[in-house]
Amino acid sequence: MPWFLTRLNWVFGAQTNIFFTLVDAKWITVQKALGPKISRDVFRKDIAPLKRHGADLTCFLVGDYAAMDTEAAGEYLPDEQVFVVVDQGNPPVFDLGEAFIGVMAHEIGHFLHHKRNMPGSGHHNRSGILLASGMESLSLDKQLVTNFNAW
Question: How far is residue 86's CA from residue 125's CA, in Å, rounded to a whole number?
């Protein structure tokens, strides 16, 4: 089991009682050169269709992603049920050591927010909490747990 799944289950399981199960993890081959930085359009056209059908959510790890200013190191595409994370994470937004798993948790937060049919993106202004518009962490407050969870 990949180490990041253990870490995500620790973050979400302990705080929301939401756990994740690995369906499949493997390298994929894209049959053309994508360039040094993957754009959203290229990701949507050439990578997202390679998702694991039957999985609730598929994560793709890439070397570099040409995200917009609002997607610093990853992006969730709700219509595709996929997200992308750069392999270095986002050190300016998460504390050292949390940069990679922080971006994964952030994008999964968007997924959970979307699955609960909550309005908006899920970003908020409560500093130090997952999905914060500024500095965030792997901590969830009562409002976020309520947003993610049906109980």
Answer: 24
Q: Are 126 and 143 in contact (CB under 8 A)?
A: yes
What does the block give as tokens for 142? 């009562």
Strands 74-77, 82-86: pairing is antiparallel
DSSP characters over 105-135: HHHHHHHHHHHTT-SS-S-BS-TTSTTBSSS
**In the structure encoding, which two tokens stand for residue 117, read together?**
């049919």
> Half-sphere exposure of residue 121, counting CA atoms within 13 Å on the CB side?
14
Structure token digits, residue 49: 């269709």
Q: Are 124 and 110 in contact (CB under 8 A)?
A: no
What digits encode the pLDDT tens for the residues 106-130? 999 999 999 999 898 899 999 999 9
Write the pLDDT tens digit of every residue in 25-37.
Answer: 888 888 888 888 8
CA distance 29 to 1: 21
**Cα-Cα end-to-end distance for the chain:** 28
Longest dimension (CA), the chain: 46
Full-model pTM: 0.88
- Among residues 21, 73, 75, the alpha carbon closest in space to that of 48 is found at 75
Distance CA 141, CA 150 (A): 15
